[in-house]
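Researcher: We're teaching a course module on how sequence relates to structure. For the next exercise, students receive a sequence and then see the predicted structure as tokens, so they can try to spot secondary structure elements on their own. Here is the exercise chain.
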Amino acid sequence: MNARKWCFALWVWSAILSPVFAGFYSNVLLNGGFEAGASHTNITDWSRFGNSYRYAYASAHEGSYALLAYGNWWPDNPPDWNGTGVYQDQPAREGEIWEGTVWARSDTCVTGRFFGELQMSFFNAASQAIYEVRSARQLVNGSPSGTWTQLTARAKAVRSTAYVRMRPIVVQSPDFESSSVWFDDAALYRRPDSTLRFAGREWVYIDGYYNPGPNFFSTNSAFLDESGRLHLKLQWLDGKWHCAFIESPEPLGFGEYRWHLNNRVDRLDTNLILGLFTYALESVLKTNQNEVDIELSHAFPGMQTNMLLYSIQPYTIGGNSTPFLYPQTNDLTTHRFVWRPDQVLFESYHGHSPTARQTNDLLASHVFRGRGIPIETNEKVCMNLWLFFTNAPANTQEVEVVISDFVFVPFNGFILLDEFEDGQKSNVWDVAGPAGAVQETNGCLVISPPSNGEPAGYLTHDTIHRNERGTRYVFSAQWTSVTVSRACSGEDVCALLYLSTEQDSVRAANSAVALEGRYDADSDTLAVVLLAKTNAPGADGIVRFEGVLDSAASKIHAPGGLGFQLALDPQAYEVSVSGPDGQCLALQTNQGCSIGLHQFGELLDYAYWFVGAQNGGLGATGTVVWSRTVVGVRAQEQDMAIEELAYAGGQLQVKFPGAFQAPYGVYASTSAPDRGYVCIQSNRTVSSPVEQVNIVPTNPDTMFYRIGE
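Model: And here is the predicted structure for the students to work with:
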């Protein structure tokens, strides 16, 4: 959008619109030619603002009437910009591509900074404007008079869209120009296309005049060649420089974003910028711009030599933008970033490959960590080639960038994984509790908390970064041993996992969620308790769930032990306890529910993760042993395709990609592959990037296998 922002009063949506949505290319506007109306000021189906009037007009584009719009009769005090026009609203939905057109004409030349244009805006159900585009063409000083010009605005409806607003408008500057513009034959319709297919994905063209720059962006400036390569081109069209901009229709979320470039971008014109990035509009999220960005340009201040820039928005915060030298020596380069909840890895290197083939190929790399990492929201993948501050290219030549491929790999992995195998605390952790209470040995974290009830264990040195906008996080740990050295009446020792906004203790925190395993040696029972609190320092929290497991010691000490999992979705929690085979164990519910809504919002977006234990009351003491803890993202789609098959020594080795906490099954058939499958192994927890299963086939020559949940 243009750097100038206009603020106009919003009239009440006067008509109750039926929920009937437009067909492709059908004009949904009513009275688009302004032929109907009770008077100059009462224009059927349109809402007026400012000095806009319906008149009989001998030079109407079609019909007998048109709309005349002009600025104020006298200057504001103090002088200010003002807008005049009409608008009409129609239902719209996220993802739809809308195009509005209107014919415009000035009988005499437009003067000064006065201009006429077409604006198209998207609104949510609360009548809040969430996105706006403007026509690339405008009637301005120097535009021909006495002739009709069609103004066009096109855009895709963003998240939460409820309706689209069509608005022919003139804007008068503080110079108080006396110009006027006629409008006629307005149309608004939904388009079925405005896309191109590149790298196996659909992409939407961006058309219009708006930021960055602002620039004119044109569908004609992005196209594919006969080899399927994408060309982003700066072109001289209709007396103006037009830039290229395409974006993905849908957000992709956390993962790897990789672009393969096919020409010498180090030779870009000094006023041009190539952007490869993810982006969500500030107006969509009602917060800072949400962006992870790779930019190649000589245009930015100080970037004549360091023309490669890795950025996290807002770039004005120190450390969010990092420039690099860019000594490109051949046409083929790869630029990528891996966007995770806890970090963003940037890399640029020669060649086209998933990673740099050798050290000398690497051009630049950078890892960003901290609280500025963007969250998943309605961000889109974008590619653009644009002029800095709309400055013409220094050599006045057309320029293009060629991109042969784009690759996205979703993130389905671990933010934190410690199997306590190295016998020493890593720098991920701080020790909580008195000296000697915590030991890491033989692949285990052994915790003997003090008798005063103080917790002990490992606490992350930095906060775990998660968010509440679409990604499911799983916090888990494997409990493999419990020993009670001095018992008491009731709870003896408690295995303790928690997320907390404070590092010193869960009780001192403003907000926290704790998953406890309270073991009673006398009854050999385990009470699994979930406590949660929001903005309540000094409190223990409210019990959201309590379930009981009988014959607990044998289950804890079984090979593999008990897996404790706490899953946090954007709005809900889920508690589960699993056995060594990965199956969830049935708990006798005493209170609450193991699945429910939480009230955290974004309070635990940055929180410390604790793995530990504490003793029960009345002087009881004991020891808890954890063998593993994991914090990860549970994939919303699990890829279970077989990666490798090998048959040797009477065994078939099946390898396939693993995904965090995904149950799987290996199915076999001796018949046709579409029937007769039998599950031969399942209900285990995938815990490594590649899982290997060894099978003894009954008849390897005619066996069929498939992997699935």
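Model: If you want an answer key for the exercise: The chain has a mean pLDDT of 83. The longest strand covers residues 472-486.
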